[in-house]
Amino acid sequence: MINTKNQTELDKALEAHDPYRMRSLEQILSLFDGGQFIADFMSEHAELMQKMLEHAENHRKGAKGSMSITVNYALNASGDL
Predict the structure, then answer these.
(1) Residue 38 CA to its chain's centroid (Å)
(2) Cβ atoms < 10 Å from Cβ of 81
């Protein structure tokens, strides 16, 4: 019979080392350009939010927009993703 406590600990250990488990969007985006992409993105996002707030304040109406991010993956010969 399997000891449930030991099985739970084993399951947690395996999950912690699972290379296929889902990561947060922030973790994924921080991989690009050595982390510079996420830094630039967050800075530009903050600037856009400020401009939208200023627009709403100056024109007494809301502002809206959208943003799309496409993440393309490729596996090179050395196995890097």
Answers:
(1) 9
(2) 8
Q: What is the DSSP letter of 79?
A: S
The predicted model scores a pTM of: 0.57
Joined tokens for residue 3: 């000891």
pLDDT in tens, 2-30: 566 677 877 777 677 777 777 788 888 88
Residue corresponding to tokens 């490729």: 74
DSSP string, 1-66: ---HHHHHHHHHHHHHT-TTS---HHHHHTTGGGGHHHHHHHHHHHHHHHHHHHHHHHHSS-----
- Four-CA torsion 22, 23, 24, 26, nearest 10 degrees: -150
Q: Is the dihedral of CA 39, 40, 46, 49 positive or negative?
A: negative
